[in-house]
Description:
Layout: H1 3-25, H2 34-40, H3 45-62, H4 69-75, H5 83-99
Amino acid sequence: xxxxxxxxIDQTDVVNGICESFERDFHxxxxxxxxxxxxxxxxxxxxxxxxxxHSDLExxxxxxxPAALLEYLIRYPELNQFPNELSEILATEVKLRIRLPxxxx
Length: 105
């Protein structure tokens, strides 16, 4: 494994660790704030933000709570720089909306 591959694995581990923390804390009161977790990963802000938005959206929808990708795009306009990743998040949103019961909000 070369140095660049090792660095990429390390970065992925960091992002995954932050997301796992966020997901563990999701059921606490008060709910975790994405901004607090992104701040910790400042050098990896974009990667972390995308992963956290994906997690938050999925967790909220699975808990029958209002959530939509558009909300995150308004809150974090820098996400618009990542159309491929956004299409994956949108696909998750659509799949969950089809599979899960209709929300009661």
